[in-house]
């Protein structure tokens, strides 16, 4: 994984010009607000979010961004596999979940804690549900 990340970092704008639009399309399907998108991407500046949306090729590709994007793509893929009905897949994150991992809250609440590890926890949970462990 480290070697792959290094290769992606070297490719820079050619990766971000396709990666970020895919991430923003997922965010749109999930019905996320700008503030929620910023949290998931680890951003603190709203202007950066809108610059990335309008000019993704100019976004600075970092290990943090790659890691976050990887988890988001993995969560999306797992939901598509587990819940083939697009509407159910898109709603799952916002639906309260009685699994002890979520403690009756929506998985999105866990994601919005803002740490990369929160993305990893949800991704790992979904992978386990798919039998991918």
TrEMBL record:
<feature type="domain" description="Antitoxin Xre/MbcA/ParS-like toxin-binding">
    <location>
        <begin position="78"/>
        <end position="132"/>
    </location>
</feature>
<dbReference type="Pfam" id="PF09722">
    <property type="entry name" value="Xre_MbcA_ParS_C"/>
</dbReference>
<dbReference type="GO" id="GO:0003677">
    <property type="term" value="F:DNA binding"/>
</dbReference>
<feature type="domain" description="Antitoxin Xre-like helix-turn-helix">
    <location>
        <begin position="19"/>
        <end position="74"/>
    </location>
</feature>
<protein>
    <submittedName>
        <fullName>DUF2384 domain-containing protein</fullName>
    </submittedName>
</protein>
<dbReference type="InterPro" id="IPR024467">
    <property type="entry name" value="Xre/MbcA/ParS-like_toxin-bd"/>
</dbReference>
<dbReference type="InterPro" id="IPR046847">
    <property type="entry name" value="Xre-like_HTH"/>
</dbReference>
<dbReference type="Pfam" id="PF20432">
    <property type="entry name" value="Xre-like-HTH"/>
</dbReference>
């Amino acid at each position: 994984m480290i070697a792959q990340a290094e290769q992606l970092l070297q490719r820079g704008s050619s990766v971000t010009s396709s990666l970020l639009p895919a991430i923003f399309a997922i965010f749109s399907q999930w019905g996320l607000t700008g503030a929620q998108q910023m949290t998931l991407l680890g951003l603190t500046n709203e202007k950066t979010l809108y610059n990335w949306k309008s000019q993704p090729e100019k976004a600075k590709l970092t290990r943090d961004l790659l890691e976050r994007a990887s988890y988001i793509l993995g969560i999306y893929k797992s939901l598509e596999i587990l819940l083939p009905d697009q509407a159910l897949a898109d709603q799952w994150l916002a639906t309260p979940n009685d699994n002890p991992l979520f403690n009756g809250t929506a998985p999105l609440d866990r994601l919005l804690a803002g740490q990369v590890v929160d993305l990893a926890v949800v991704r790992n949970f979904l992978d386990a549900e798919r039998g991918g462990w």
